[in-house]
Amino acid sequence: MSDLSTIRREALDAVSAAVDLGALEAARVAVLGKKGSVTGLMKTLGAMAPEQRKEFGAKVNELKGEIEAALEARKGTLSSSALAARLASEKIDVSLPARPEGQGTLHPIGQVMDELGAIFGEMGFTWADGPDIEDDWHNFTALNIPPDHPARQMQDTFYLPPRADGTPMVLRTHTSPVQARTMLNKDVQKRLADGGSLRVIVPGRTFRIDNDATHTPMFHQVEGLVIDRTTHMGHLKGCLYDFCRAFFEVDELPIRFRPSYFPFTEPSAEVDIGCSWKDGELRIGAGDSWLEILGCGMVHPRANANCGHDPAIYQGIAIGMGIDRIAMLKYGIPDLRAFFDADLRWLRHYGFSALESVR
């Protein structure tokens, strides 16, 4: 028992005498550590008789609890003192200029997506999203791209391992699969049956096996889709006139439509905008040259039917363009590959303030 009294007195004295948290930790280890005095007493319990072990063990546990309580109380006191000393010694001169902080910028792709959302949003379009990994049916078949179509060839498409049921999977080659998914939505079909309309834009990442100054394996597209009972090519042209002039900020921007082919639209057209070149610099607006910027057309009856809409009742218009391309044209960016280099110097030069208004 004398050992208990001695250990108790020495331990509590050491705790009381600790002048900082380091000294307090040393006192704790000396008593409760692996080789501490109380830990040593606990190790002797195994050699005692059961009755003696029960009585002595209770006293050792009581001593351990008393020491732990003293340690916790002293720790609180020392922590408060340390904080008070730090607050007293550390000061800041609030009259000094603030430290400069680096300000991030919006990537041109993000900026252009915001601009697209704002312009088409004013026309009544909503934003739709879909998966980057698509099944063969949504990416190709639903959009009137049969199995023997060149777009399915390995030089164009990143194929992935098939599902367990054998369904082929790909990294989507365009954002049009989201159009198919949206058209198949039961709520959308009910809205159309009730005389309403569908208007969506689908910005997002797409993937094709290609890489040069104007192509990358991953790039960004935006699709626009309108489905109702009355929309026609006149509506499509009016929509694109408004969009192109708003996006490029040229009120009298020359625009022309050229007949083209896309498997999911019929008739189809390429859209060019007027431009000129002076001293090697591109100027968008009136001029003697043209630039192709997007494709469009009336939704093909077969694509309409594949997505659950009777082409005898419903018709639609579709728009598709490369976001990277129109960003390069509008903001004078010469090389597409720089979009994905994560070069801070490039981002500071071509980036946009997060507080800058889109419209």
Which terms summarize this structure?
BirA Bifunctional Protein, domain 2; 8-stranded mixed sheet; 3-stranded antiparallel sheet; 12 helices; about 40% helix; elongated
Structure explained in plain terms:
The chain is of the alpha+beta class and 359 residues long. It has two domains: 2-89; 108-350, BirA Bifunctional Protein, domain 2 (2-Layer Sandwich), CATH 3.30.930. The chain contains twelve helices and eleven strands. It has helices spanning 2-17, 21-32, 37-43, 50-89, 108-122, 136-139, 176-184, 186-193, 233-248, 301-306, 323-331, 344-350, and strands at residues 126-127, 133-135, 159-160, 169-171, 198-207, 218-228, 255-262, 265-278, 281-284, 289-299, 315-322. Strands 1, 5, 6, 7, 8, 9, 10 and 11 form an eight-stranded mixed beta sheet that branches. Strands 2-4-3 form a three-stranded antiparallel beta sheet. A hairpin with a 2-residue loop joins strand 7 (255-262) and strand 8. Helix 1 runs antiparallel to helix 2 (21-32) and helix 2 runs antiparallel to helix 4 (50-89). It is elongated. The relative contact order is 0.11. The mean pLDDT is 88.
CATH class of the largest domain: Alpha Beta
What is the overall shape? elongated
Fraction of residues in H or I helices: 40-55%
C-alpha-based Rg, rounded = 36 Å
Task: State the distance separating the first and last CA atoms.
Answer: 85 Å
**In the CATH classification, which architecture of the largest domain applies?**
2-Layer Sandwich
